[in-house]
Amino acid sequence: MTDLVQVTEVSGAVDLMMAAPQPGHGLGPVSSDWEAAEVWLGAVARKSRNGSVETVTTYRYHLAKLQWYCENVAMTTPSRWSIQDVGRFKDFLANLPADALCARIDRGFARLDDEGYTPFRTQPSASSRSDIERFVHAMLKTWHAMGYIRINPMALDGAGARRKVNARRSVDLDVFQVVLSTLEREQGGTAISRMVALRDRFILTALRELGLRASELVGSTMGSFYRLADPKTKRRYWIFRVDAACAKGGKERRMPVTQTLLRSLQDYRMGFGLAPSPVESELGALLLSPYTQKVIIAGSVVRGVKSKRYFGEFKELSTRQHLHAIVKTRLQTTAGLLSATGEHELASELGAASPHWLRHTFAKAALLQGQSMREVASLLGHASVDTTMVYTDQDALDLVRSFEREKIDLAIAE
User: Fold this and answer.
1) Which alpha helices (H) appear in 272-411, and where do they start and end?
2) Which of 341, 390, 378 is nearest to 163 (CA)?
3) 229: which strand partners?
4) Would you call 171 helix, strand, or coil by DSSP?
5) Spatial CB neighbours of 322, under 8 Å, sequence gap ≥ 6
6) What's the mean pLDDT when you consider all of the chain?
7) With bands split at pLDDT 50, 70 and 90, how would you rate the model's confidence at 146?
8) Which CATH architecture has domain 173-289+320-371?
9) pTM tops 0.90
């Protein structure tokens, strides 16, 4: 088998953006490194035993960042990378130049076809950089195993450290109520502003009350809420189902819905002209935008909210980035008010919070309320209770109790 991509000369020099696959590699007829990446992503999807698309979706975000860097900064495609190229990529991620950040336009961030678009909206955090580097290492490792590249330039670096849960990143429950109160005061007088406020309140409440990942919330449908009867008591309860398709690890799970969350859902739905309670057959997206396209029936423009929803014209929120922007905006607005009243430390902490902080908030609150470690692990979708334990000092408490049984003298805090 001969090289599928020929090396070309540009002004007497090798074009470093042309792929350099090895003869006889096993990735099939690919014409660029990006096609080789797609072959690998296809294999990742097929290998998933549980049908989850979350890993592949996340990998595509990382691939977009890698491709943008190669085409706009490094001018070298990955199959030509050396260990020095790896170092330059890591330095780039650690110190993102201003022109690498996505431009802002009237409706938010520039999109793919807009001028000034890049896949980088913010400077990647240490944990985000680690995720991106591990993605690249995994791809290069597979390319090397399939004979596509002669060496893996990241072999000496390894896969990098995995993201660690920082259990301290949670929002105080009293402060969370301030966030909701701030949101209600800023609803505004227009129908759209009220719809947005009701939706955003539901988003914040769902993240707090269910401990969902952002991808799980945006990937859910209205029918994810359903009624379940207890055959013993004959009472019926509301349940929320996280489908395998959007759950991390592809493991479906179900959890009880609190009265607080149900009221927030009903208010949100009524604000969009829907019946207060959903039915399991509703397959439309859970998160809606109040903005619609024009609907014309029999020559007349449909203006009613209910009619627009009936004809499927409400746009849907289906990306983690959009959800992240909504939550960050609401948290930072409250942070600004706290700062104005002299609560600078609290404002700084809230300003740094993200949707995932509300997942941590849920976990810590559930454990403090007395739910067992195994129950909370199940609610969070953790494969092991070891992951859940980071939200508490359970391991330290176990040792303290062991010391007490052994009558070992311990220092008692005042």
Assistant:
1) 305-310, 320-340, 344-351, 355-368, 373-380, 385-388, 394-405
2) 390
3) 236
4) coil
5) 218
6) 80
7) very high
8) Orthogonal Bundle (1.10)
9) no
